[in-house]
Amino acid sequence: MPRAAPRTLIPPQPGARGGTSHGALRLPGRGGVTAPGPGGASGAVALPPRLRRAATGIETPFVYEFDRGMEPFSPPEPGFPAEKSSSVPQRKYRVLVGVTGSVAALKLPLLIAELLKITGLEVKVVTTERAKHFYNAQEIPVTLYSDEDEWQLWKSRSDPVLHIELRRWADLMLVAPLDANTLAKLANGICDNLLTCVIRAWDLSKPLLFCPAMNTAMWEHPITAQQVEQLKSFGYTEIPCVVKKLVCGDEGRGAMAEVWTIVESVKRILEERDLPTQS
Ligand SMILES: Cc1cc2nc3c(=O)[nH]c(=O)nc-3n(C[C@H](O)[C@H](O)[C@H](O)COP(=O)(O)O)c2cc1C
């Protein structure tokens, strides 16, 4: 499969933003329990083909059944417009969100809430340890994975390796925010945590979007541009940072793109690839 050309997404204008719709929520994240979506819909979701995950309780979510022979049945998502609720089940599109230790990780709950408004999207999150400092896991209504889960899951040869299962599961990866540290790791192939292992093993035929976020001084250091170019040369898509008054008080480029810009970029990529989205 040919690689995508290096690219930077130029965000659409705010007026181009679509309306809202429902998305089935998965609650709570680590329990793998499904719950009604905002429209009162049942939260039943299609299980991934290779990874049939049995929700076994809040503290032991990582029980997997492998079913390599059969595609699981995906019922039409409740709440689809009539033309979409045909006998052909609507395909779920799986987005894996990576979050790193930038202050912009404060926006993770909002980002996830907005992504879940896109019909047909299933979302999971992979976090670095530093990123955990910036958001409340209770506010993340999808499955959230971190380094501990990777090592808890694997006990013996027959156990699945979480970073490989996640790279198989995901159709699209969105790293938001991408801090300077993880940017440097990704540009150099370093893989010392769950997030960087998923990306090190990424299937380059699938889209990967990244949203840099850092202090202006870090952004302006010449190594940043080199590393961003390196990521784009892999076929990853940059969602550029913006000029803003930063939390540290400095004003300048380096702030993560606005959440609506990021969500519109995800929708655009899905549409470009002819994948179903409505919101
Ligand atoms: C309050 C605070 C805010 C930070 N914000 C940023 C940021 O916006 N961008 C960045 O590149 N690093 C930022 N850092 C530094 C990163 O958290 C640090 O480099 C960390 O090692 C990143 O780890 P990770 O890439 O594994 O998540 C911040 C640190 C602190 C303490």
TrEMBL record:
Q: What is this protein called?
A: Phosphopantothenoylcysteine decarboxylase
* Biological processes, Gene Ontology terms: coenzyme A biosynthetic process
Which ranges carry the Flavoprotein domain?
A: 94-267
Q: Enumerate the InterPro entries for this protein.
A: Flavin_trans-like (IPR036551), Flavoprotein (IPR003382)
Annotated Gly residues bias:
29-42
Q: Which GO terms describe its cellular component?
A: phosphopantothenoylcysteine decarboxylase complex
Q: Does the keyword S-adenosyl-L-methionine apply?
A: no
UniProt-listed SUPFAM superfamilies: Homo-oligomeric flavin-containing Cys decarboxylases, HFCD (SSF52507)
Protein role: Catalyzes the decarboxylation of the cysteine moiety of 4-phosphopantothenoylcysteine to form 4'-phosphopantotheine and this reaction forms part of the biosynthesis of coenzyme A.
Superkingdom field? Eukaryota
Q: Which family does it belong to?
A: Belongs to the HFCD (homooligomeric flavin containing Cys decarboxylase) superfamily.
Task: Give the source lineage, highest ranks first.
Answer: Eukaryota, Metazoa, Chordata, Craniata, Vertebrata
Keyword check for Ribonucleoprotein: no
> Which GO MF terms are attached to this record?
FMN binding; phosphopantothenoylcysteine decarboxylase activity
Record keywords, A-Z: Coenzyme A biosynthesis
Q: Which organism is it from?
A: Otus sunia
Name the segments for region: Disordered. 1-48
